[in-house]
Design goal:
5-stranded antiparallel β-sheet; 5-stranded mixed β-sheet
């Protein structure tokens, strides 16, 4: 039997990203002791599918990296800023639709918009790229995704990067345990 072809390049097909507001989840367990009102988060997600050459004998790939770029315009500013996040997924099934997502926390939304209420108006554009096993095929144009602007806008903009406002992957949010099978598994951080 031939050795598995780990690390082999593949194609990824990404959909247009979607984004929406979500309230902080309320979970059971003595929560009635705390008085609080759930705040809003902004979630951006993209559906993608990995396809491999016929010579690839595995039903999964080791790594899929989704590079995210989100353009925001803070309240009272004329400038647009870019938020960036790379999310590395592992054990990604071949030939199945899976999702990747990033989030803006309630405090990040307030810092950008000046309001506790999440508004889609905070987002100017969303875009990114899906990379299979650390490599890309230049012919695979479907690996890119965009909303609000044309694909590649993040390479052409003169907008400044805004590192003080982080994009979070799903595992960095209270949504970590929700909708588990919908999302590609995120590589755990080594401590």
């Amino acid at each position: 039997m031939a050795a598995p072809l780990y690390g082999q390049a593949g194609n990824a097909e990404a959909s247009d990203p979607k984004f929406d507001t979500l309230q902080s989840p309320v979970v059971g367990g003595n929560t009635e002791r705390k008085s609080w009102k759930p705040k809003d988060w902004l979630e951006a997600e993209v559906k993608f599918k990995v396809e491999m050459p016929k010579t690839y004998r595995q039903s999964f790939v080791d790594s899929v990296t989704v590079k995210w770029y989100v353009a925001v315009k803070p309240e009272g500013s004329r400038d647009v800023y870019i938020l960036e996040k790379e999310v590395e997924h592992v054990n990604v099934p071949v030939g199945e639709d899976v999702y990747s997502s990033v989030y803006l926390s309630p405090s990040a939304i307030k810092r950008i918009s000046g309001s506790d209420r999440a508004s889609k108006g905070v987002i100017e554009a969303i875009g990114g790229e899906v990379i299979v096993n650390g490599t890309t095929r230049e012919s695979n144009k479907k690996r890119y995704f965009a909303y609000g602007e044309k694909v590649g806008w993040w390479t052409k903009t003169k907008a400044s990067r805004l590192d003080r406002v982080p994009l979070l992957n799903k595992n960095e949010t209270p949504f970590k345990f929700l909708w588990w099978d919908r999302y590609a598994e995120i590589k755990p951080e080594r401590r």
